[in-house]
Design brief:
single chain, 279 residues, alpha/beta, CNF1/YfiH-like putative cysteine hydrolases, seven-stranded mixed beta sheet, six-stranded mixed beta sheet
Length: 279
């Protein structure tokens, strides 16, 4: 089994990008998901597998992903090794906080999942970088990791997009911030939608977020929803060229290579894949 998979398009640009598989080990840092305690060792070995220096010689900024719509541009991080990138991290230069759609907020507050709202609002689900020896990272199961790179300005971004985040604009917010603050042109961007759950294995109406999502779509529409297709349409609408968008064929729930909450016997203890991008 492969220890990681990569984007062919991004490989041609020279930027480092990869998604780990089960063969590389569980990357989850949360104790309940990292019962063998090997995550840190797996992280370090993953970087070596990619032909990079050890994790202690670079900075890995791990997104504090919670299905929010918040995006950050990062600046110099003093720490080497693994760093959790949350809203309070001093490595953040610009924080673009985007509130959940008002309908979403009300629906979530009134549902059985209302306790999740404060956590979502405090999250950080996308980041933008451009410095060497700094990697953006995302621990994920079935949500989509989206890697974006501009070969001209060398700015790159990593986005965590589940159905909720995608519907609430995390992809568009990130590209708009890259345009406004980094001087990138969407037509020059290379994008990769990484391994995530495919529509054949997922029905959003069973999701904990369905009470929110049903505010903007019918059950019939939701049952036809495909996360990868939705994200690709958003990238195209934002100005990216179709030839510059690559979509992974892998479904995390339908392929035993990947950790997947949806197909796990015990989702609460299921491990995590790691997607990184950096120079």
């Amino acid at each position: 089994m492969k220890r990681f998979v990569r984007s062919e398009l991004l490989q041609k640009t020279g930027i480092n990008q990869a998604t780990s598989t089960k063969a590389a080990g569980n990357m989850a840092l949360m104790a309940s998901r990292n019962q063998d305690g090997l995550a840190q060792n797996n992280l370090d070995q993953f970087f070596k597998d990619l032909g990079l220096v050890g994790l202690n010689s670079v900075t890995l900024l791990l997104l504090d992903a919670t299905h929010s719509s918040n995006v950050a541009i990062t600046t110099f991080a003093k720490e080497k090794g693994r760093v959790i990138l949350d809203q309070k991290n001093p490595a953040i230069l610009i924080l673009n906080k985007n509130e959940l759609n008002q309908k979403y907020q009300q629906a979530l507050a009134e549902s059985d999942s209302g306790h999740l709202l404060p956590q979502i609002e405090k999250g950080l689900d996308a980041a933008i970088e451009h410095r060497p020896n700094v990697f953006l990272g995302l621990l994920h199961a079935d949500c989509a990791p989206i890697c974006i790179y501009d070969p001209l300005t060398h700015f790159y971004s990593l986005i965590h997009a589940g159905t909720l985040g995608a519907l609430n604009g995390i992809v568009t917010y990130t590209i708009n911030l890259m345009k406004k603050e980094c001087g990138v042109l969407p037509k020059n961007l290379i994008a990769y939608i990484g391994p995530c759950i495919a529509d054949a294995n997922y029905n959003i109406t069973y999701s904990v977020y369905w009470p929110i999502i049903k505010q903007i779509m019918t059950k019939e529409e939701a049952e036809k929803l495909d996360l990868k297709t939705m994200i690709k349409k958003q990238l195209l609408k934002a100005g990216l060229k179709e030839k510059n968008i690559e979509v992974s064929d892998f479904c995390t729930a339908g392929n035993e290579m990947f950790f997947s909450n949806h197909s796990a016997q015990d989702p609460s203890s299921e491990g995590r894949n790691l997607t990184i991008i950096g120079m």
